[in-house]
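Quick one: structure for this chain?
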Amino acid sequence: MNTKEFKSLLERSDDKVGIFALISDPKTKLQLLIDDEIAIGLDNFEVIDIIHSLDDDEKKQLLGNSDFIEKHKISTQQLEDIIISLSQEFRAELLTDNDFIVNTLHLTNPQIAALASLLPDEDLKLKMLEIYPFQNYLKVGIIRTLSTENKLDILLGKKLSGTNSIVQVLSSFDIESLCDFLLNHKDFCTQNNIRPYNISIILDSDSQKHFVEKLECLNLTLNEKREILATLSPDTKLLINTTDYPEEYKIALSMQILRYDERIIWDPDRNVEDYRGLDNLMQVNPEQFDEKQKAKFMRLCDVCPNMEVANSLSDLVYMLSTVSEYKEAEEWISSLINSLEPSYSNAQKIALIDNALGKKISFSPDAGTEVFSPSANRALWKIICSGYGVCNGIAKVEQYILNKVGIESELVSSSNHAFLKVKNIELPLADGRIVKGNTILDPTWNLASHRFDGMPNTFCVSYEEIRKQDIDENGKDHNCHKNNEKLKDATLGLDEKSLRNLFSSVGLANKIGMFPISTLFWQSQKLDEFYSKDPSKNISAQLKLLARHCPDFAVCQNSSMKILNDILLTNKNLKFNECIINRVYSTSDEKKSPILYVYIDSNEIGKKFYLADKNSKQFVEFSQEEFTQQFECYEQDLKSTNGIRPWESEKTHLPNTDLAKSSGRILANEGEER
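Got it. Here's what it folds into:
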């Protein structure tokens, strides 16, 4: 039957797929398939079935027919399957045509890498690695299929980076080759932070058993051997004959591990000495430990000083501190808790704990910059030791301490902030009543007030009241505390008089409820009046006042920004074209550590720069030339001002860095906000 006869039959038949199956000549089949009058009755899957029945030449022609592919809605996954169905020769020819694969077929890099791994020719695979911009994880899939010789060339030639990627490739070696590599390339493993167990843990059971049989030939330390044995799969451990094993090996084999993260499950009832030397496999979360468990854990810390101490931010998110940070922070927490009088109510305890956190912690001054570490600023014990954190980390610290004194709270998040809902708390009111319920405590927004002995304005407030604070002077609602579902029952709040009475009862305000910040406010006003006709001396005096009142002002940068913005540099006799209070870094500092600075431009004194010096604990004045030569703005701060540094701008009143209102607003004399 010729082409014309098949076409006539196809036009009349309801079973076009069946008719196509009768056509033996691939050229005829292709000619009919691309005929719109014939193909219009075929759905996508029928078209794909027919394509798979074609020979390589015809498949290649269809792959180059963009109109046909678009018309029949052939997906890139289906195109990938068609390429897989080609003979090896045709497949190799297509894949080395970068332009055709990427710009005509629009295959993704993962698809291309998967196809490349199926090529039989190693030279072609190596060529694919060169011509396509594969990411490391895609390269690994191809490299694992290469010969040991080519794998070695890639690894030792530093053509693959990343510890995990390298480990994945090493795990594809046969056991003999893997053992040779570990014997002969110890420096390579050290440089890439690879320990032998990182490789053995992802081997299958048979390979693990074979590997363990070679253990004594690998020139490994005892701890390296124990790490390997501890992290074997349960199936492998059952296969091993331990009759002649030393006790250290048997103890390692008895360890239970979490397979998904290579960690040993710590058993508090076990002898802590069993874990000595296994620090790399230890990660323990002690948040819920009672005093007996904590005492045992402290002994474990001495045995495994390099293990990780974890705290949870959620069920799936963990932050890590070091053992030394845990010990130091727990000592501080214990000292704080021991300072609380047994007779104190829970409300009094919260007041003292919230105040202590404000004295100890500042909002991270490099938040939002290119050097900011999200994990370090959310790790519970690390925050206490460093003195820096961000909102959910700081709230977690306070929640942890409140829990230790028996006060229940919940960490609540809005779209851009985190704080606490304190549950079932009894609050004393000024009229003598005691009310009980849920209330809101925002440790982060209270930081600056506590650091400078002011009245915290987000301490035990109702949801209705705290939502009012989310609205700025321009009427914009920043929704910092918006979470109707979780906070609708947070109806309890202290009025100002009740709050002052509470803080007075624990010595944080005087007998009539005045906070010590009122003295700072009064002194600042007096200096402003005294130097009313000399703005340069007025500014210097205000900055010296800050240093006297808070000697650590240079290391609690964000809290200091708030006090300068809200009180010290807003006096009536200080009139500026610009007053920018922000952070910069020294151009000679590789770590780009944040430094608080004040830039002032006024008609009377011109442009002045003042830098908070951590060593002298004073503000140091710089000329513009000196300042701009030695210090630079962070990329994020430049981005917010369209690349214009404050001192370069012809406009006035560039915004200070807000850091999401991270330390709240300072309450000054008699509770009046400034």
